[in-house]
Amino acid sequence: MGSRPAAGPGHEGPALDLRLEPRAAALEGPLFRFDPRVKVVTVLALIVIVVSFPSAAWRSLALSLVVLAAVAAACRVPAREILRRVALASPFILMAAVMFPLSQTGAASRWLAPELWARALAIALKAYASVLALSLLVLTERFGRLMGAIRSLGLPAALGSAMAVAGSFLGILGAEAARMKRARESRTPGRLRASKVGTVGRAAALILLRGWDRSKRVQAAMESRGFTGSLPDLDPYRLRARDVLAAAALLAPFVAVRVILP
Amino acid sequence: MNKGNMGAGVAVEELVFAYEKDRPILRGVSLEIRPGERFGILGPSGAGKSTLLLHLNGLLRGQGRVRIGDVVVGAETLGEVRRRVGLVFENPDDQFFCPTVEEDVAFGPLNLGLDREAAKGRVREALGCVGLAGFERRNPRRLSLGERKRAALATVLAMEPDVVAFDEPFSNLNPALVEALTGLIAGLEATVVIVSQQVLPALSVCDRIAVLVEGRIVRTGTPAEIAADRDFLRSTGLDFWSSLDALRRKGLLADGG
After folding, report:
1. Nearest chain A Cα to B141, which residue?
2. Which CATH number fits domain B10-94+159-249: 3.30.70.360, 3.40.50.300, 3.40.605.10, 3.30.1340.30?
3. What does pTM read for this prediction?
4. Distance CA B185, CA A55 (A)
5. Which of A47, B33, B177, B241 has the greatest CB tally within 10 Å of its CB?
6. pLDDT above 90 coverage of chain B, percent
7. How far is the C-alpha of A63 from the C-alpha of A47, rounded, in Å?
C-alpha cells in the first residue's frame, strides 16, 4: 500500500484552475500563523480606508499599493499567484476606470478633462489595492478556515456552509475540467482551434454535468458521515495580542494618511 | 479502532428500490448478516450492489426494512444509523473535501459531537490503523491511489462504526495493494460488508457471500460453496476460473494449481 502508483485523479494539472486552496509555499509564511478572523477584519478595514481616499490623492493610493506589495514580499506570499489574480481582475478594473470619463455627460470634449482621468486613475488604483489586499488574505489562509472565520464573525452558518460547499464544488469542476482536458489532448494534436467553438461549448456543458454528478457523490459521502449542514472546525481560533498589534501596525499608516488627507 | 467491538448485525427484508418508476433496481432483497461477520455481495455490473449498500447507511430508502442491530433505518434514526454504519466509497476522491487529511478524517467525529481533542485522538488512531500515521497535514488529493483508499477508510474508522461497508474496495488496485487492503479489512473489529465485482479478493476475505443479479439475491453461501459452482459463476458473469484456465493454457499455472 505504500507504493506510489501512476498519477491518479488527484494529480490533475491546472487545466482550469478553480482551486481555492493556497499553494503550500504561501502557507509557510508569517501571515498564515495569524488568527484568520484578524486577517478578515484587517483586510476589510484596509479596503474601506483605501476606498475612502480622495480621488485626487492618487500618489497616496499608489503608495498604498507599494506598501501592500512590500508586505506581500516580506511575508513570502508568492508574487506569481498575486499577479495571476491581478491579471484576472484587470479587464474589469480597467473597463470600469476607462468608462468613468467616457460616460460623463456634458460638452463633447469634456471626457478629455484631466480631472476625470485623475479620478479614473484613482478608481483603478483603489480597485488594485483591494485586489491586492484580498489576494493577501486568500493566499495565506486555507479556504475552510477562512469560511469558518467569516462564520464566527457573524455570517449566518447556513450561508457560510453554502459558501464553503460552493468552494468545494469549484474544486470538483476544476478536477473534472483537468480530466477532460487530458482526454481531449490525448486525441487532439496541438491546440484546439478557435473554429471549434462548438466543441468547447459541449465540453463546458459536460464539465458542469459531470461536476454536478460528482458533487452529488461527495454530498452523499458527507451525509454518510453525519453532515447536517454545518461544517465543524477542527482547530480553534486563538486571538493573540501579537495578531492585533500586527494588524494595528499595518493599518496605522493608512489611517494616518487618510486623516492627513483633506 | 473500536476495541472489543464485534459489530452489529444487519438485516435487510424485502427491499425494493427504483431510481425511475417501473424500473426497479432492487426487487425484494433479503439478507441477514451476523455481528462481526465479513460479508461479500458479488454481482455483475448494474446488479444493484452499490444501491443496496447505500440503503445500509440511509442514503437511500426504499420499500422494505433495513435494520442495523436493533435500529431500523428511517428518517428519525438517521443520525444513529450513520454513527453505526460507515460507508467507504469506490472512488476515494468522493470522500475528501477538506484541504488536509486530518480535517477530513476529523469531519465524522466532529459531526458526532466529539470535542476537538477527542476528534484529534480519533484521527491519530484511525490513521495509525491504516498505516498513515504522520499524514495529518498532507493534502488528501495529492496522495497515491493506495494511500487515498486507506485515508478514505480512516475517515470512516474514526467514527468507530459497528458496520463498515465497502463499495468496490479492490477496484483499480494492483495485486500488492489488494493484498494489503484485504489484510486491513480482515483485521477490522466490526461487521464488514463488501460489494465487489472482484471475485478473488472477496472470496479470500469474506466469511459468507451473496450473489446479487438484476436486483435479486440468487445465491448465498460460503466462499468455498460459491467458488465450487462454476456453472453458476459462469451464468452470473463472475467466473474467475476462466482467467486461471487461460494461465494454464499458457503454461503459467500447473494443472491443479
Report:
1. A10
2. 3.40.50.300
3. 0.74
4. 67
5. B33
6. 67
7. 14
